[in-house]
């Protein structure tokens, strides 16, 4: 099964990286779901959460604001001025 390589990066540190089966994030145009094989894109993040579903089914949530989301070749990069894991 195909997977995504995901990195969530804040201004001062990498918050999380790993492989996932799905990523859901809020952009300024609304919420977007990303699966393996997604078309390349670049979007501005809206205030909200990034939800990552790992290949093992575990879910991870991070807050991310003031940044962008990039998708290319099954690689999702989320770069935010403010990013942290939700516990």
TrEMBL record:
Q: Which Pfam families match?
A: ATP-synt_DE_N
What EC number(s) is this enzyme filed under? 3.6.3.14
What GO molecular function annotation could you give as one example from this UniProt entry? proton-transporting ATP synthase activity, rotational mechanism
- What top-level class of enzyme does the UniProt entry assign? hydrolase
Domain annotation ATP synthase F1 complex delta/epsilon subunit N-terminal: ranges: 4-83
Name the InterPro entries for this protein.
ATP_synth_F1_dsu/esu, ATP_synth_F1_dsu/esu_N, ATPsynth_dsu/esu_N
The superkingdom of the source organism is Bacteria
Q: Name one GO cellular component term.
A: plasma membrane
UniProt keyword annotations, A-Z? ATP synthesis, CF(1), Hydrolase, Ion transport, Membrane, Transport
Q: Which family does it belong to?
A: Belongs to the ATPase epsilon chain family.
State what protein this is by name. Answer: F0F1 ATP synthase subunit epsilon
């Amino acid at each position: 099964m195909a997977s995504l390589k995901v990195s969530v990066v804040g201004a001062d540190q990498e918050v999380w990286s790993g492989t996932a089966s799905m990523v859901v994030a809020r952009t300024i145009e609304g919420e977007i779901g990303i699966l393996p094989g997604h078309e390349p894109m670049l979007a501005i993040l809206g205030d909200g959460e990034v939800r990552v579903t790992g290949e093992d089914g575990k879910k991870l949530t991070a807050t991310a604001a003031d940044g962008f989301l990039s998708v290319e070749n099954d690689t999702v990069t989320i770069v935010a001025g403010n990013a942290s894991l939700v516990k």
